[in-house]
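Continuing the batch. This is chain 6 of the set; chains 1 through 5 are on the previous pages. Same settings as before, nothing changed between runs. Recording input and output for traceability.
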Amino acid sequence: MSLDVTWALAWVRRTAQVVAENRDLLVELDRQIGDGDHGENLNRGFAAVIGKLDGAEPPELVGDVLKTVATTLMSTVGGAAGPLYGTAYLRAAKVTGVASLDAAGVVALLEAGLEGIVARGKAQPGEKTMVDAWTPAVTAAQDAAANGASAEQVLVAAAEAAEAGAVATDPLVATKGRASYLGERSAGHRDPGAASSALVIRAAAEAAGTASATA
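Output for chain 6:
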């Protein structure tokens, strides 16, 4: 099955829910190697996104939803998270100006999101950033789609890879962002951006599963 605007809206709502549920965890992860505001900033940002969507005309295209997420996060989320996530969603919006996404469309969405994060943050895999969750997610999505997986299955593969990628940041030494100030002391702590990225991508898969179950 394809994933339409209803799925995109469900993804955003599920993201807001899981970010709220994991706010304290993300705060604690960021407190260990950053400034401790990642969870609070994202929670505030996605709450604002929900408010914006609730007060707007129903979107027609998947990209319309993602553009609203992008612009709202950029204007409400402080620190690095706002520009990084905002650019990811904005790039994704540009390749999803359609009524629904098939497996290839999901891959394009994830690829564009990663490209936006890299363009904004200049990070590469292995530097203990959200790129370490997004890169394996994109690779897994590409592989799944190439093997004939459905749009939902592509997202599940991406979510599993993102979660593994976030865990894999634990032993890394940060070389980008505020965590890089700690040098070797950043090792042994999970990157909060990678952790939140895994939550966001898992939320997309869960929203797809819900859509599939009610179809």
